[in-house]
Amino acid sequence: MNENRRVLIAADKFKGSLTAVQVAERVTAGLRRVVPDLTVEALPVADGGDGTVDAAVAAGFERREMRVAGPLGQEVTAAFALRGDTAVVEMAEASGLQRLPAGVFAPLTASTYGSGELLRAALDAGARTIVFGVGGSATTDGGAGMLSALGARFLDEDGEPVPPGGGGLADLARADLSGLDPRLSEVELVLASDVDNPLTGPKGAPAVYGPQKGASPDDVETLD
C-alpha cells in the first residue's frame, strides 16, 4: 500500500444530468474500485451557475435557506451561502431552469424577483461582499424582477408596473430607482460568470441564451 497516493477531484456539474457533488461521488467510486486504498478528496466547483452555493458550502460557508418567489411566481425553497461578511448568492437557486415544471418554459414571463429576495436576505444577514452567480437562469428580464425585489419600480406610460418577465419590458417607459435598497451602495458586488456576451445583438443574451430558456425565434426578436 502506498500511503502517498492521493487524488483531488474538483468537479463541476454535468448540466441537466448530474450535480457537481454527484459527479465527484461517481468518480470517487470508480477510482476506489481500481485502487481501494486511494485517498480521495472531492471538492465541488462551479462557474456561477447551478451548484455555486453548494460549492461555497463545501468550502466552509454556512447554508442559509428561505422561501422566495420562483421564476413563475410560485414559492420555492432557495439558499445562499454566508461566511463572515461574505455571501454567495446564486441566481439559479431561485430563478433557475430547475425551478420550472418539467417541459415548461416561460421565456417572456419568467422573473428574477426571487433572486432579488435572496440578495436582500444576504444584506439582512450583514453581508458586505456578495458574490453573485448569474448563470443557469430561466429568465430573460435583464434583472428587472431582481431589482423590483430590492425596491426599484419599472413603469409603463401610465405609471403602472410593467408585467413580469422580459416580454413586459416592451412596455417600459420609466425606471424609478428612488426606492432601491441603499445598502447596495455599501457592498462590494462581484459577478461570477464564465461568459462575456453583450446584452443585445447576434451574440447577445437573447440570441445565444434565449433558446435555452425556451425562446422561439420570434421571442428572441422581441427580447432583443
From TrEMBL:
GO annotation, biological process: organic acid phosphorylation
InterPro entries: Glyc_kinase_flavodox-like_fold, Glycerate_kinase, Glycerate_kinase_sf
Region: Disordered, residue numbers: 195-224
A molecular function GO annotation: glycerate kinase activity
Pfam families per UniProt: Gly_kinase
Entry superkingdom: Bacteria
Protein name as annotated: Glycerate kinase
Upper lineage: Bacteria, Bacillati, Actinomycetota, Actinomycetes, Kitasatosporales
